[in-house]
Automatic annotation (TrEMBL):
Signal peptide: none annotated. Residues 334-358 are annotated as: Disordered. Residues 30-94 form the Metalloprotease TldD/E N-terminal domain. One of its GO terms (molecular function) is metallopeptidase activity. This is PmbA protein. Residues 344-354 have a biased composition (Low complexity). Belongs to the peptidase U62 family. It comes from Endobacter medicaginis.
Amino acid sequence: MPDAHIPPDGGLDRLADLMARARAHGADSADAVMFESTSLSLSVRHGRPEELERAESTDVGLRVFVGQRSAIVSATSLDPRGFDLLAERAVAMARVVPEDRFGGIGDADAPFDAAIGAALDLDDPAGEPEAAALEARAAAAEAAGLAVHGVTNSDGGSAGYRRSRISLVSSRGFAGSYARTSHSVSAVLLAGAGTSMQRDYDYHSTVHLADLDDPALIGARAGGRAVARLDPVRPKTATLPVVYDPRVAGSLLGHLLGAINGASIARGTSFLKDRMGTRILPEGFTLRDDPRRVRGGASRPFDGEGMATEARALVEDGMLVSWVLDGRSGRQLGLASTGNASRGTSGSPSPSTTNVTLSPGRLTPAELMADIGEGIYVTELMGNAVNGLTGDYSRGAAGFMIRDGALAEPVAEFTIAGNLLEMYASLAAADDLVLRRGMDSPTLRVHPLMVAGG
């Protein structure tokens, strides 16, 4: 059953009323968005509950346009008694700001078909769990981690639940709403003692409880990772092949997505701004954004401007084929929105992706590393010294040496550096893609990078 505090689609009527008040006060066009949520989280340390938190929130945003001038106001209540004042303030603000010739509400001009949202299966009917159920999940994760030989301490296990409803109405006639749930479990374990202590984690989040990993598996993985990191050394400075574990390989996708974001392209601040229609990844690689994935963690039936979403390739067979666009960046570039607008209640929409995947290769991770005499396997990245204009890349890292095609001693306190254009051109992928994080990649191999260590 839906949480009682989140209204049914009658909330759309109130948003339409708010928007109508804005039009009455002089707005030429307007849209209104509402985010409502309930969340419950609980953490356990050494078997004892440490923190239980339940929160409910309502956030409303109104965006108005007077000609090419716009303003946004937000509130934490959908009380109609405050609508006139909210609308009047928004219009007054819009009249005194500079014009934006690329501004405007989304082009969506029809009510949303609720059946499309229902088909995505984003609202778990299991409902909000009892606190005791969350405690049991968190405790099971921590206990399994503490049972791993070599684990000496715990930073705790945690479990959480969240349900939210997103509603949007625009003066062009769009009106839509959908709900989303999430269930999560995490564990953080420590191994060793004193200055040689090492920490690691595991985490899983799903839309439906039925898809969530067994908490004991999550804890055991976290504990095993912490133990494996004990007694790291600094690698020697050298130019070496680097292999990215799947849980950090997604960061390479993140840098690419930032470089093809429509806002960056329109500003001319991306190292990929002149690469549309050219090869940026090796043949066979496809990078997809799929907002229509059933039970997808970032799925959505419409974007932040009411545009219908659709799955699309961003890179296909290695060729860059699409920017990531909202309405404004699309108008700047003379293109249509790709349905990738994202927004909150107090800021303008901006382009963003949803469920992103990089296609897997045909080799197992072991086969991908088999011919590496000496290399680095990266499991953790720190810092973010990436130059968006040039693609120059430098990150702090930790992981393991690769020797004769196999993982060897743990390493830490080193930096890997290169240029993203060259790194992308040299990618090789394993066959171990798992849809788990929302930005999912198989194990990736890059040739070669500068490794600055001892």
